[in-house]
Write a structure and sequence with these properties.
mismatched DNA binding; 614 residues; ATP binding; ATP-dependent DNA damage sensor activity; alpha+beta; nuclease; 8-stranded mixed sheet
């Protein structure tokens, strides 16, 4: 029997390797930018056309390559980063495997120009599908320029799996942001087609964050720094009130390498304990410096996962650093060690004192006085004002209770009619009220019905928005004064990708600059809410749903807009609004459940109510 096992040709082996290393245009961007960083560049320019499908070009002012090195860099497992196995545990560079350039050249057409500082001429190299087509000397200023053209031109199946241009561009921007954040000392620029997306000067990390995400991030940055014998942590975290419901603005860098770690993210959230909602994710850019011998970066092909020798130690130091940063900037509550615990008086309850301290312009901290009469005067004034506030609150509570007082009429003389469950409530519109401004309670034939007002409104809006998207018939309310909204580059690309769907819902938006949109009109369903906050919430919710749900684009948009524009728990409704809400709910195709799957209403029949008293 003849032998059947044979070595694969290099071209095929490189294509197979490219399946892991080069998943999409953003993968090429990551590898090329990291190579420029390893080359000691101080200025890096990224040019992208057709979301990287037509061209990805990276130009740097690094050390450049000799003619031999330029040819060798396209060979598999050819690298300048390591020489022996022990070097894997002393890595301080981004690349080390020697697979990236070979993989990229296997699925694209690559043009390389490079020149070392002491060389008279540079080198021009053209490679197609791992085959060198041209190699010659050329005039070049110095550094390296790599152009990757027609990605996946020889692998059409892979090219067909690429997403739309806005989606692919969003991934490219994500990779660009990660490399730029890890290296604030390097100047970066990003050019998409004919648009300048980013122009980032070299500077401090805080300046880089503001340059990438916008000036509004300047208000929420809290410096975080901790140094121990084993680990150094520095960077910035966002204030709790700016936390978002979607992940995506959380960045960990270990020895300047971007990593993903759910374990370390949990440490950060633990540091925010008590300051965040359950579904909120804070912004942070945290850089960890640790001895390379204590980590293993050779775990995943994309190098975004690493292993620590002592994860618990890193977890503990990181959580402590977050708590310390929040406390030092008066973000977290702290004990006042300067107060005299032996001094006490009959003060009102804490919540009223807090409200008093914010409302009263006369409120001041106590200062030491020489005279007892001065103390008595201070205490007397404070107590008088506290009692006044307490009295006003009590009166307000009485008024609120009187407004919500209900008189239940007897239905003994009413004719009982047999109706379907969805229509039971029709004869009880006179006895309808809110419970804690969250649930709507109404009498029905079989007993008592409780409606979750937020879940019910989400169901109503979801079906309405779905219909608008299907028929492209959303009505719009034009604004007298348009709203201008500045977005991050990735969010801007996302909005442009959803432009047609947003138009079908009733939004009228126009592009205004590289990362700004102007909202000229909004769906008529949003007339009573802040359109700007709803639009920001829509983007946030859309990204969140995309991470946790497998639904179509249209359904995701309808879910997201319904979630962010529905009436919230805590909103006070009058009887007419409550009746209208229930009318519309039972006109839905599926009134029983909200889009999230939660029940919109429950019915307590008379037998169940009676069982509570037996």
């Amino acid at each position: 029997m003849s032998d059947i096992i044979q070595l694969l040709p290099d071209a095929i082996a490189n294509q197979i390797a490219a399946g892991e290393v080069v998943q999409r245009p953003a993968s090429v961007v990551k590898e090329l930018l990291e190579n420029s960083i390893d080359a000691g560049s101080k200025k890096i320019k990224l040019v992208v056309k057709d979301a990287g499908k037509q061209l990805i070009q990276v130009i740097d002012d690094g050390i450049g390559m000799s003619e031999t090195d330029a040819r060798m860099c396209f060979e598999r497992h050819a690298t300048s980063k390591i020489r022996k196995s022990e070097d894997l545990f002393e890595l301080k560079t981004m690349g080390f495997r020697g697979e990236a350039m070979a993989s990229i050249a296997a699925v694209s057409q690559v043009e390389l120009k490079t020149k070392k500082e002491d060389a008279e001429l540079g080198v021009l190299l053209e490679v197609e599908a791992s085959e060198v087509k041209k190699q010659t000397h050329t005039a070049y200023t110095g550094g390296t320029s790599i152009s990757v053209k027609n990605l996946f031109y020889n692998v059409p199946a892979r090219r067909n799996f690429l997403k739309s241009n806005p989606v692919e561009m969003r991934h490219i921007i994500d990779e660009f942001q990660r490399v730029a954040l890890a290296n604030p000392q390097v100047a970066f620029s990003l050019h998409q087609n004919v648009t300048d997306v980013y122009q980032l000067n070299a500077g401090k990390l805080s300046q880089r964050i503001v340059g990438l995400f916008g000036k509004n991030y300047q208000e929420q940055l809290v410096a975080c720094e901790e140094t121990t014998d084993q680990l150094k942590i520095y960077g910035y975290i966002g204030k709790p009130e700016y936390a978002k419901k979607t992940r995506g603005e959380q960045f960990f860098f270990v020895n300047n390498r971007y990593i993903k770690s759910g374990y370390l993210h949990h440490a950060v959230v633990n540091g925010f304990e008590g300051l965040l909602a359950n579904d909120a994710h804070p912004f942070y850019v945290l850089c960890l410096e640790i001895d390379p011998k204590k980590i293993d970066v050779n775990v995943h092909p994309t190098k975004t996962e690493i292993k620590f020798d002592d994860e618990r130690m890193v977890y503990g130091i990181l959580a402590a650093a977050i708590r310390q940063a929040l406390g030092a900037h008066n973000v977290a509550p702290a004990l006042d060690f300067d107060s005299d615990v032996n001094f006490s008086f009959n003060a009102p309850r804490r919540s009223r004192v807090d409200e008093f301290s914010t409302k009263s312009s006369n409120y001041q901290k106590f200062k030491s006085k020489d005279s007892d009469s001065e103390w008595d005067k201070i205490l007397s004034n404070f107590q008088e004002l506290s009692d006044k506030i307490s009295k006003e609150e009590d009166q307000k509570e009485v008024i609120d209770e009187s407004q919500q007082s209900l008189t239940f009429g007897s239905s003994i003389n009413e004719e009982v009619k047999a109706v379907s469950p969805n229509q039971e409530w029709g004869d009880s519109k006179t006895s309808i009220f809110q419970i804690h401004n969250k649930y709507i309670a109404t009498q029905v034939k079989s007993g008592l019905m409780l409606v979750d007002q937020q879940a019910a409104h989400e169901r109503i809006l979801f079906e309405k928005f779905n219909q608008h998207l299907k028929n492209n018939d959303g009505s719009s309310q034009q604004f007298l004064f348009p709203e201008q909204l500045q977005l991050s580059a990735s969010d801007y690309a996302l909005v442009m990708d959803m432009e047609e769907e947003l138009k079908a819902l009733g939004f009228v938006i126009t592009s205004f600059g590289k990362d700004t949109v102007v909202i000229n009109g909004a769906p008529t369903e949003l007339t009573d809410t802040s359109v700007k906050s709803v639009f920001e919430g829509l983007i946030d919710q859309f990204k969140h749903n995309k991470n946790v749900l497998s639904v179509s684009k249209n359904e995701n948009i309808a879910r997201s807009l319904a979630k962010r524009s529905a009436v919230k728990a805590g909103a006070k409704l009058n009887a007419e609004e409550m009746n209208a809400l229930i009318d519309k709910l039972f006109a839905c195709q599926n009134p029983n459940y909200a889009p999230s799957g939660n029940s919109t209403f429950i019915i307590f029949d008379l037998n169940k109510i009676g069982s509570f008293f037996n």
